[in-house]
Structure formats: structure tokens, C-alpha cells
Amino acid sequence: MPSSSTGLSVNDEKKYIGILFFLFAVQIMSWVPRFPEVKANLGLSNGEFGTYLSLGSVGAVIAMLSSGHFVHKLGARKVLILSTLSMCLAISAVVHLQSAPIFIIVNIINGASVSAFNTALNAQAFHAQDRAGEMILSRQHGYWTVGAVATAILSGFMVEFVGIALHINVLSAVLFFAILYIIKKLGPELIQPSPEDDSDFGFKDLFTSFRIDYLVSAALVCGIMVEFATSDWSAIYAKETIGVRGSLATIPYILTFTAMIIGRLGQHRLTPYIPLEKLVRIGSVVGGVGFIGFIMASSLLVDYSKTLAYICTLIGFAIGGLCSSILSPTFFTAANKRSSQPSAVVVGQMGVINAILVLCVKTIIAWTAQFTGSIAIALIIPGLMLISVAFMSRVTKGI
């Protein structure tokens, strides 16, 4: 995809993209550690809350089906700005809600906004990666994880002293203007509308041009479900199953994403010595087994020692986070390498399949927790999925 003629240096482009990943994470993850409060405001059970939360994937599918083409056709600037506005408004609104139907609608809008921004930002990261001539996506996703941890720490502090509405509303307003400022700084290298685009590209072309890389899609969803399950359930698990108080309930989430930062920012130090395919294979097995083993141990130990159960919880989530950390950027890079389509379109199409599969798996996890009465049993599902990545690691050859 073309960028403008007067460009930034590669290092500046990488820097600003990294800052956008950081701010993006701070915004979209800001309310995650406060899910127990959102669930309580809505008066929902675990199964209901997990299902309604998963419906954000409906918006994600709609956005990803089209946003890649919009980035290619209209350029990244418009997509980034519009999605930033709707994302900040949706997250600001959702923490005020006490009506489940309205929550579903706002969450779908939020899912669409997040997905559109994510597609445009990852396409821009591929642009920088092509300019740099090296794999930088893992490090860029590492900056996203830094933002997720930063906002979790902030939320863990705020939960004791500040109401959820004040916390999220002020933060969203500040982040809206911060993101717009960085978009402006990126301006010289933002992806421009493609000059060879066919102006007659229509709605039906969204479907006729759709391509599915089945192996990469399966590997991606299996590799990221520990991360998604941690975001959705770690605070609830620590609070309701282990029985720790508010701020301590956010520590498993913080520790998991800290481990992911280490993995993503440190990947380039390992790949000169360990082939990427082998690294993916070993990490998925160790991560899946460790995640399942320590989470199950924590649920069995809670009646005997809450402290020991809590330690096992922390270890389990941290192992899962560390060992799955490189999978998402690695599989997105693999998908881009294996496709002849523009990177924004690849990201969007991968996102559609991923969002549908994630919606299904999240719903299964939520209702497994509801019907069994055990979040620990439900978390076996993402652990097994992570282990299965070992059998699909060959997609990383040649990247």
C-alpha cells in the first residue's frame, strides 16, 4: 500500500506506531479489570455476562469484513480517526449501563470500533515492517501489552478509590485526544488510498474477494484463547473462586500481560538460536500444560490454603501468557506472507474468521463455567487449544 511522498524515518514510524499500540491497549482494556463491577451493575450471571460480552464479536465481524477494504480504498487516517471516536464513546457509555439489551448494543458498537482501529493499525505496522526489512510486529504487539498492563495497574488502584464511571470517562477523554495527536504525527507515512483501486468495488465484492487460510486461522484462534480467557475471566476467577479482594483480583491479569511483554519484546533475542517453528511448538505445549495444571491446582487448594491457591493462580496465568505471547503477531505475519492481497485486507479477513471462532469459543467457555459451576474447568478449554498449536506450527516456516 502506498504512503505519502514525504515520509518519516523508519525509526520514527515504528516509534509512533508503538505509541498507538500502547494507547490503543490502555483504552480498550481499561474496563476489563473492572468487569466484576460491570457484571454487578447489570445483575448478570457468569454465563449471561460472558455471552453478552462475547456478542461484541458480532460488531467485530461486521467491521473486519469491510475495514480492510476501507483502509485500502480510503487510507488509514479516516479509519483510525472514526474508529477512535466511536471506540472512546462506546467504552465511556458502557460503564453507566444497567440494562442488558442496551449493553449488548453498545458492546457490539465497541467491538466494531476496536476491530476497525485494529485492522488499520496492524496494516500500518506491516507497512513499517516492510520498510524496516525485519519482523517488528511482535515488538509492536509488545507495546500493546505494556499498555494493557499499565491500564490494569491503574484500574487496580482506581477500584479502591474511584468509581468506575469517573475512572473510565476521564481516561477515555484524555486518550481520545492523545491518539488523535499521534495519528497526526504519523501523517507523512499513513497508508494512503490505493491509486489502482477500482471505484466500482461493491458490497458483494467483500464476499467474492474473501479468502480463508484455514490452517493459519485455526492456529491463530487456538493460540490466542488463553489471552482472551485471561482478559475475560482472571479477575472474576480470582475474586469469586479464590476469594481475594478487589485490587488483588487484578494481579493475575497484570502478571499475565507482564509475562506477555517479556515474551513479545524478547522474541528477537531467541529466534537467532531457536527456529521460530520450534519456538512456537515448545511454547504452546509448555504454556498449555502449565496453564491447565496450575489453574486446576489452585481450584483444588482453595479450601486448604487460599494463599497457596492464589500463588498457583498467578503462576498458571503467567505461564499461559508468556508461552502464548508471540503467537498472535507470528500468525498474522504468516498470513500476510502467504497471501497476495494487501495487508489491510489480510488483517481484516483474518479478523473476521478469528472473531467468529472467538465468539463461539468464548460462549462455550462462559456456559461451561455456568453449567459446571467452575471457572477452572471452563479454563481447561483455552489450555487445550494452546497445546493444539504445536500441531500447526509449520505455518511459521519462511517468516
TrEMBL record:
Transmembrane is among the record's keywords: yes
Membrane topology type: Multi-pass membrane protein
Transmembrane segments: 16-32, 52-72, 79-96, 102-121, 164-183, 212-230, 242-262, 282-302, 308-332, 344-365, 371-392
Gene Ontology molecular functions: transmembrane transporter activity
Pfam families: MFS_1
Keywords: Membrane, Transmembrane, Transmembrane helix
Subcellular location: Membrane
One GO cellular component term: membrane
Keyword hit for Zinc: no
Protein name as it appears in the record: Unannotated protein
Organism the protein comes from: freshwater metagenome
